[in-house]
Structure formats: C-alpha cells, structure tokens
What we know:
By secondary structure, the chain is α/β, with parallel strands linked by helices. It has helices spanning 37-42, 47-53, 94-107, 123-136, 149-152, 174-198, 206-219, 229-235, 238-244, 297-312, 357-370, 384-390, 402-415, 448-457, 494-505, and strands spanning 3-7, 18-26, 29-32, 63-67, 76-84, 113-117, 163-167, 223-227, 252-258, 266-277, 317-327, 339-341, 347-349, 375-380, 395-399, 419-421, 439-440, 465-470, 476-477, 488-489. The protein folds into two domains: 3-172, 3-Layer(aba) Sandwich (Leucine Aminopeptidase, subunit E, domain 1); 192-505, Aminopeptidase. It is built from 15 helices and 20 strands. The longest helix has 25 residues, at 174-198. The mean pLDDT is 97.
Amino acid sequence: MTALTLSTSSAATLRADAVVVGVAKGPKGPVVAPGAEAVDQAFDGKLAAVLETLGASGGEGEATKLPAPSGLKAPVVLAVGLGELPAEDEGFAEEALRRAAGTAARALAGVKKAAFALPVEDAESVAAIGEGAIMGAYSFTSYRGTDGKKETAKADRSAPLAEAAILGGKPRDKAFKAAVERAAAVAGEVNRARDLINIPSNDLFPKSFATEAQTAAKEHGLKVEVLDEKALLKGGFGGIMGVGQGSANPPRLVRVAYTHPKAEKTLALVGKGITYDSGGISLKPAGHNETMKCDMSGAAAVFAAVVAVAKLGLQVNVTGWLALAENMPSGTATRPGDVLKMYSGKTVEVLNTDAEGRLVLADALTRASEENPDAIVDVATLTGAMVLALGERTFGVMANDDAFRAAIHEIAEEVGEQAWPMPLPAELRKTMDSSIADMANMGDRMGGGLVAGLFLKEFVGEGITWAHLDIAGPAFHEKAPYGYTPKGGTGSAVRTLVRLAERTADGDLG
Length: 510
Ligand code: BES
Ligand code: MN
Ligand code: ZN
C-alpha cells in the first residue's frame, strides 16, 4: 500500500520522482492552487500560462504532466484539476482534494515517490489527500501474468505509487498525525473491500471468504465465529440455506466482533455476501451475470469497516455479520414456488430465486437482533431497481427511523460518498402477500428497491433502530476510472460505516 508521510519541506527541495500541484478553474483560465508557490516560482510564475497553453483548464479529472524546470529537485511536475475555484473566503472542498489526489496517484502508477503540494488548510484536507492517494493508487493485479516484463520495464505501470509525501501539514501536530493515520487505516480497508470484491467467484466463495475473514481478524484482534452448513441447518437458518443449497459451495454465516472495554454502544453491521449471483433457477440472462461476483460487496464493506474500526481502536462495540452464499441453479436448488422457513420462524414463498439477497439478509438481521444492538445497518447490492432510480454512483438509504436515515445520509456526504434517502411506503408491503405463506420474496416491480427494503424491515427486532443501504449502483464500477475510483470493486459504504462507528463512539447518535 502507498505509504503516507507528512513533510515540511518545500516542494522545490524535497527529493521525489514527481511533485503534484493543484490547478483550479478560474474565471479567466486555470489558476495554480495554494501549496504550489515554490513550483510556480521555478516556472518564473508562469505555471498557469504554461498549463493553459497545454490545454489544461483546471477541470476535475484533468492530469497534465510536465518536465520540471531547473530549480526543482523532482524531475516531473503533475498538475491535477481541482474543478471550480472556490469563493475567496472558502477553501477547496475535501472531496475535490480527495479526487484530485486520486487522479494524481493513478497518473503516477509505477512511480516510487511523489510529493503532494496541494492546498492544505487543516488536518481534514491532509486526511482527504491521503485517502485519495491510497484509494487512487489501488490496482488489482493478482491475476495478471508478468510475461517477464517486470525485469525489463523501468517503471512498472502496474505497481501502485509507493510513497506519497504530503506537504504543508505539520508532522508534529497531533491532529495532523491522527489524520494521516486515520486516512491510511480507512483507505487501506476500502482497498481490502475492493480486493475481496475483485477476486473471482471461483476463488472467493463462502468458505474461502470465511477463512479470509478469520485470517485477517486474527491479525487485528477480532473475534470470529463461523456457522457452516451443518450449523445453519441445525440452527434453522432457512433463508441462508435456501439460497445456498443449490451450490457445490455451501453457505456460511460469519460473525466478526470488535469490542472495546469502555464501549457504551453496540453497532451491528450486516452484509449481503452472495459470492456469485447466477439468479438460481430464475436464471439471469447473459448480459446480467458477468459482474455478479460483486454481489458480496455488502459483506466486503462490513468486514473492511470492522477491521478499520479495530485499527482505529474506537470506543464502541461493532459486530459484523457476513451472510455468505452462492446462488446457483441445480438439482438441489430452491425452486420458484418453494416455501422457506426463516430463522425468525416466518415462512417465505420464493417466487423468484433471483431475489436471494433479502433471504440471506433476513436471517442475518434476525440473528443480529437477538443481541439487541443499539442500531443495525445492513449493506447490500440488493436491487437493479435502485440502480435505475439513483444511477451508478449513489446508494439508497432506507430506515425505520427518520433521524437515523438523515444521519447516515449526512455522514455519507461528509466522507465523500454519494447517497440519497429513500422511503419505505407502507402500501407496498401487501404486494408481497403470498397465497400460502406468511409472505413472498417479491412484490411490485415498481419501486422494487423499496419493496426489498420493506421485506428486510420485517426481520429487524422490535424497537431496534435500523437502516438499509442498497449499494447495487456504486459497488462495482465498469466504466473508466475517475478520481480515486478504479474499475471493478469500489469499496462503497466502507467510509460511511467507519464514520458512523466514530459518531456512535463519540455519542453523537441516538
Ligand atoms: N444482485 C442482484 C441485484 C443487482 C443488480 C446488483 C445489478 C448489482 C447490479 C439481486 O440479487 C437481484 O437479482 N435482484 C432482483 C430482484 C427481483 C428479482 C425482485 C432485481 O433487482 O432484478
Ligand atoms: Mn439476485
Ligand atoms: Zn443478488
């Protein structure tokens, strides 16, 4: 992972392979952002003019590489766009810095050390730059052959930027130090979630995911309990078993617990962990199944968030529940029309085996409720309907408590994740009525994301505050990378969950 350091050196004298500067979109052309004064001086004060000649505008996502003039230690200058120049009395938005640092890290793949001379106002800006650099430097290369290239290439373009020195921070200041440590922990865990998502389903299946969780948890002092298929059957987890029974890779329910001796609150996080979603007997057509290894993104986010909380040593208890199953069609698979007896005791008629996420989550929600946490948040790539509603970059937030839904929306915006509150209209519940069972796993197609949310709501324990994040849109990014977002798994919701745990630890919630 990219190492983060804070440096008081000048951008002109720091030994690095490249120096990163910010450029904003001003009313009359590109403007060099604060932090890059020494670099601009080396260009005789003409850096903005040079950039404009090269076609740069300061727009978000731009990256312009220049050979450095004499006077700079680093041989290369990289100018990254920060977007619109903020008003005189306002600084750059944290998300603008995070994205610019991410764009820079992507442009500097293969480079050893870069100095980031971006505008730093406070510890928060340092944190944003650090997070952006680590997340932007992410690459998933475990499945690429080397073809002997590694020995010959000067800069290995598949190797992430090794070190990011952030200038302008105060290395001895407690707040700045903490900001860098937090950035490394959180962004590092976002990258862990991405790895888990990107590993193909032939290598990441319920049992191997559980083993992965056990290994990582040991390293961070977390307590892990795994229910295998025998224990799930015996325990009456009809939802998880019903989804997993068609696969040669049997299901698991993993409980991973972080506890703090002085914690006053307990947060339960529940993740949908369908390691592959073929749709089951209600098979998905070609064109809809190629990226379905991503259907465990909720569980990945939950696990990564619990590890991040442990790394930060937060004064709160956080229990993660990973509901792991592979949804496959076979002679042993659940058929459309079958009725499952859920862990809660409710019976569910499975009208569509492709609506499997809610079935595994329902059991995990009931199980999590038994421990009576102060709040439960589930995270799931649950419905295509949510992608249609909110697009590919925004997750939906539903809840049984208006204040909690608003708090999560606010937290998401604060950490730079796009989210939007969605309702749970009561009248949609009856569309899931079944003619033979307590309910069906499907209702109206219209508002399908909300119907799924209403299904989950029934499995949350009486009186427990609960929110549901449908990350089907942002979990997996298929288009060109931007900012700190790579192709593939994004680690959506990890940063929101960590900040939620911090807020809970601080007693700012409920
Ligand atoms: N895993 C899918 C949802 C999904 C869609 C995730 C696109 C990521 C991208 C989920 O299990 C599913 O198949 N949902 C169905 C539900 C329907 C059958 C009620 C859907 O959304 O079509
Ligand atoms: Mn499905
Ligand atoms: Zn699914």
